[in-house]
Amino acid sequence: MPDEKFDCIVVGAGLAGLAAAYQMATDGLQVLVVEKAKVPGQKNVSGGRMYSHALAKLIPRFWEEAPVERAVTREGVTFMTRESAFSIDFESKKLGDLHNSYNVLRTKFDAWFSEKVAARGAMIIPGARIDRLHIEDGQVKGVIAGSDKLLADSVVLAEGANPLLAEQAGLKPPLKPHQTAVGVKEVIKLGADVINDRFRLGMDEGMAQVFVGAPTSGLPGGGFLYTNRDSVSLGIVMPIDSAMGFEHARDKRRQVPELVEDFRTHPYLAKLLRGGEVVEYSAHMVPEGGYRQVPKVLAHNGALLTGDSAGFVINAGLTFRGMDLAIESGRIAGVAVKRAKDKGDFTRGGLKEYERLLKQSFVLKDMKRFRNAPGFLSNPRMYTTYPEMISDLFETLFTVDGEKHLSRKEVRQVLMRHVSPVTLAMDALKGVRSL
Ligand SMILES: Cc1cc2nc3c(=O)[nH]c(=O)nc-3n(C[C@H](O)[C@H](O)[C@H](O)COP(=O)(O)OP(=O)(O)OC[C@H]3O[C@@H](n4cnc5c(N)ncnc54)[C@H](O)[C@@H]3O)c2cc1C
pLDDT tens digits for 338-377? Predict the structure, then answer.
């Protein structure tokens, strides 16, 4: 096999790599996917909610055969202090009918997707790590794994959030701490009926909930909860610099795993998760720098950057997306490689179509639209002042002792205990602008 030359070698059998391979194999290209995990998906971590639209382009109505967990029909946003929780709860059967998004467990999901890719004719080698790119005269011409040199006209880099090969070859600068977050996730086994009862869900209906404040001990970042068929994915994502206590640190002694433990045992969650057993624990990097962190050049001589490797992640507060962007960028990379092959030109000039198609797609349009979100989400008041203000306000509103008579002036005083009217108005404006 080392003597064989492929049209494309894909590094990484995550969603971006598998989507690229699926597209190219469907177009009849000779494709090799190399994955360092023993089974595709084994090392892939996601909170768990995948917006369906991108994969549905490649595999229409994929949810009828894929191992999806539940269709999300309930959305929650919860502001938490150590003792209290204020939630906005939205439920709509329509979200499920539209197949808008599904909670997934990547170990199962990626294994299924890789079988679909293999069925299209791509070759997948799991359990093999690519050590570096093979470059001749400035053109990427394959990859090197141990003593093996594998040749190809093009390489799709789908290495995920820590793209060492791309960085080593100078195709992208290393991420800085303020552009990177760490995500930690637990899967807690509960049983399908328990989940349906406690989260008020029907069969196959799912919940996606984000949390602000206490989960990250008042530091930038947030918590998430996704209901699977018979388990719950629970975790936090926080910027590396706040995780390391560089900035805004209130309690520098807390480590991220301890924060997840505190989150799981918070009074609000302890009741929902009572009797659950943690069956899986994982941690992973997330490129969270947004649009400004995406490299200007994504198509190089013989190589394309896709998914997390290109920084395609959007954290817009209410929505957190990387999977649909990974799939679409992979699919587009596949289209671009086919066009380069038709032209017989795998230089940057021939592969530049990738950048043009990305600009026309939701990938770069949505990244650009939410370009101000990272700035807004780095505001420390989001994680301390506002959850405490909301808690104070509702405790005041709901406390009846026969003595206090709540007037508009008193409500205003409660709010002003936490933040000035000007600061509140400015933060609200920035929030609207980041949408
Ligand atoms: C805690 C957490 C929660 C998240 N929640 C969500 C969510 O709810 N919704 C959402 O849309 N996104 C979420 N994301 C983001 C999402 O997981 C990523 O954006 C998405 O997985 C990116 O896909 P990818 O294919 O680019 O990378 P990955 O899925 O990371 O795949 C990269 C693959 O490359 C392989 N690889 C790397 N280097 C090599 C090498 N040298 N040789 C061979 N193989 C290699 C890896 O083993 C891996 O299989 C979350 C991320 C985290 C960490």
Answer: 999 999 999 999 999 999 999 999 999 999 999 988 777 8
Q: What is the 3-state secondary structure (H, E, C) of 77-117?
A: EEEECCCCEEEEEEECHHHHHCCCEEECCHHHHHHHHHHHH
Nearest of 301, 307, 44, 89 to residue 183 by alpha carbon: 44
**pLDDT band at residue 246 using 50, 70 and 90 as cut-offs:** very low
Kindly state the tokens that stand for 431.
């929030």
Residue 248 has pLDDT above 60, yes or no: no
Nearest Cα neighbor of 356 from 370, 343, 339 is 339
Mutation to probe ligand 1, out of 104, 256, 308 (largest number of atoms < 8 A from CB):
308
Contacts of 319 (CB under 8 A, 6+ apart): none
Task: Give the closest residue to 113 by CA, choosing from 24, 25, 43, 22.
Answer: 22
| pLDDT, mean of residues 372-390 | 85
Q: Is 315 in the pocket of ligand 1 (CB under 6 A)?
A: no
DSSP states along 126-192: -S----EEEEETTEEEEEEETTEEEEEEEEEE---SS-HHHHHTTSSPPPPGGGEEEEEEEEEE--H
Indicate the pairing of strand 70-80 with strand 85-91.
Answer: antiparallel
Question: Measured from the CB, is residue 307 less than 6 Å from ligand 1?
Answer: yes
| Position 44 pLDDT exceeds 70 | no
Give 306's Cβ-side CA count (13 Å radius): 36
Nearest ligand 1 atom to the CA of 182 is 53
| Ligand 1 contact, 35 CB (< 6 A) | yes
| Atom 19, ligand 1: residue with shortest CA distance | 322
Q: pLDDT tens digits for 82-128?
A: 999 999 999 999 999 999 999 999 999 999 999 999 999 999 999 99
Round to whole Å and give the CA distance between 331 and 341.
16
Phi, psi of 165 (to 5 degrees): -65, -45
64: tokens are 């009828």
